[in-house]
Specification:
The protein has about 110 residues and is α+β, with helices and mostly antiparallel strands. The protein contains 4 helices and 3 strands, in the order αββααβα.
Length: about 110
């Protein structure tokens, strides 16, 4: 069970990370990266961000690139939240495949029907 503080920090990080990815993907084009969820550890030192990447066939390559530049992203995030947070958590990025899973279930249900 997440504390209220964890939830507030997670929402703040999600909002700011979304803005960072929006700015970066605007430069590249043809790719959309959205932050679907952020989970913060109880000691607030680790944040796990779950990303939805479109088109999904580029997701793995893009995730590797994002993980390689995690320190730069953390620095950019720290600049944005420096007045709200004393210490910016370590960032770990994961692919949120829940939309693909939902689509797969819908396809299975349509085949049955």
């Amino acid at each position: 069970m997440e504390s209220t503080r964890q939830q507030k920090i997670a929402r703040l990080l999600q909002k700011e990370l979304s803005e960072i990815f929006r700015q970066e993907t605007a430069k590249v084009g043809n790719v959309i990266v959205s932050v679907s969820a952020v989970r913060v550890s109880p000691d607030l030192s680790i944040a796990r961000a779950y990303l939805s990447i479109f088109p999904s066939d580029k997701a793995q390559v893009l995730l590797e690139s994002i993980n390689k530049s995690a320190k730069t992203i953390r620095y950019d995030l720290a600049q944005k939240v420096r007045y709200q947070l004393r210490k910016t958590p370590e960032l770990f990025f994961h692919i949120d495949d829940s939309l693909d899973y939902i689509e797969h279930i819908d396809n299975l249900l349509q085949q049955k029907g």
